[in-house]
Amino acid sequence: MAVEKVLKFVEREQAYPAKREASLRAEDFREIAEKYGVPAAEDQAGRCSQCGVPYCTVHCPLHNHIPDWLRLTAEGRLREAYELSNSTSTMPEICGRICPQDRLCEGNCVIEFSGHGAVTIGSVEKFITDTAWEEGWVEPLQVGPARGQSVGIIGAGPAGLSAADYLRSYGYEVHVYDRHDRAGGLLTYGIPGFKLEKDVVMRRVDRLKAGGIVFHEGFSVGEDATLDELRARHDALLIATGVYKPRAIRAPGVGARGVVEALDYLTASNRRGFGDVVPALEDGSLDAAGKNVVVIGGGDTAMDCVRTAVRQGAASVKCLYRRDRANMPGSQREVANAEEEGVEFVWLSGPEAFAGHGQVTGVKAAAMRLGAPDATGRRAPEVDPEGGFDVAADLVIKALGFDAEDLPTLFDAPELGVTRWGTLRVDAKTMMTSLEGVFAGGDIVRGASLVVWAIRDGRDVSERMHAWLKAKAAKTRVAA
Question: Are the beta carbons of 266 and 189 closer than 8 angstroms?
Fold first, then answer.
């Protein structure tokens, strides 16, 4: 190993790829950061301390071999770095863009603890695989010998796509069913282009299609086929729908025009980016242009909404969150990006009512304070009786998170077991639901979570399904 290429964290400062000026990037939906050049990527990878216990790997849900591909990058061995990165992740360049590295790998980097600033792991990860695409190193999906068995996957989001990739490589016939007209789920329609440009997602989908995976887009389970009908078509099923039921706000006036759901708002904006005609944008109901916009929530979806509103030309954008900055669930980097772009955060505030007759004109907000810790250890917000204020609003976007839809009803499968949260109940070891041969993974099992965890679940459930399908085939041969 060329030792002189690494362990440079003392003499070499942390340097992320330069961000475009806020005033310029707020005019479009391109990703906000420039890409590393080769020398910069090698220099930053060379800051890795190659520590004996790599906490970055431990805290990565995929357990990526991060120090190893950082070393290879520092040594200029980019193709080997890509191959190693790709060995544990089906979408490394997507994770490099949208993972909250500040809470995962980089937040647990040993040199971050020493005060030298974490290695820029996500930016290097993105650089490695983007380079692989540019250089033609990303190979077609390698399909295993045909097994004579088929798998149906319900949901074309990160968990479903990841599982489809692995199951096809095992040699199964794979069909993916999704209610949207494009695959990708949240990656395609939920995350704005300034965080994840859509050609990055589509090239992954195209690779899977070229590998023989059949996509049934615009297909609603329960309408186009029941779950039982899909079970009859395939040897095994995977449910990977994600969670899309928006959490409600119970307050007077919440039904007024101009009070909208975050996912409706983001989907409309992303569809426009694809060139689709979107009536709700044409008539202005989901367009922030010229409006005073208030977003309610403090997670990454709220951050996506406020930054989208800026790009649509909002007159003002405010974000109301019931806790303070230190206790918000969203990425601190995203908060900083939003502030740079002109978003105003109103901490310790929550909606009490929505003003306006028919059309929303404002939010009556309560001041909040942090009380005693709740069951999770976080200090619970409570209304401060001494506070309260009004905020003008022409468009209010509710971004309070998502719960599971009622899949037993939607799929006409009342025997499908669910938890008290509405997520699917699975066996911890097999990842199988209450129905024989029907598996589940991703947010529909764990609740609203990170894309990287969905990719991890797709990898894990494909292994469980592979084992189960091999056993099923063996029983069939014995019976014959």
Answer: yes
In sequence order, the 6+-apart residues with CB closer than 8 A to the CB of 215 are 156, 175, 176, 178, 183, 205, 208, 209
Distance CA 375, CA 218 (A): 41
Phi, psi of 209 (to 5 degrees): -65, -40
Mean of pLDDT values over 47-61: 95
Q: How far apart are CA 23 and CA 27, in angstroms?
A: 7
Question: According to CATH, where is 3.50.50.60 located in the chain?
Answer: 150-243+404-479, 250-401
Q: If you compute the radius of gyration of the chain from its CA atoms, what whole number of angstroms results?
A: 23
CATH code of the region 250-401: 3.50.50.60
pLDDT at 1 over 50: no
Cβ-based neighbours of 116, under 8 Å, separated by 6 or more: 9, 10, 14, 47
What are the DSSP E strand ranges found in 297-398? Answer: 316-320, 344-346, 349-355, 362-373, 379-383, 389-392, 395-398
- Backbone phi, psi, residue 188, to 5°: -85, -50
CATH 1.10.1060.10 domain range(s) in the chain:
3-135
Quote the crossing angle between the two packed helices 121-135 and 66-74, to the nearest 10°.
Answer: 60
> What mean pLDDT value characterizes the chain?
96
Tens digit of each residue's pLDDT (9 = 90 or more) over 170-218: 999 999 999 999 999 999 999 999 999 999 999 999 999 999 999 999 9
Sequence-distant (≥ 6) Cβ neighbours of residue 23 within 8 angstroms: none
Query: What is the CATH topology of the domain spanning 150-243+404-479?
Result: FAD/NAD(P)-binding domain (3.50.50)
Answer whether CATH 3.30.1540.20 is correct for domain 3-135: no
User: What's the pLDDT tens digit per position in 216-270?
Assistant: 999 999 999 999 999 999 999 999 999 999 999 999 999 999 999 999 999 999 9
Instruction: State yes or no: pLDDT of 2 exceeds 50.
Output: no
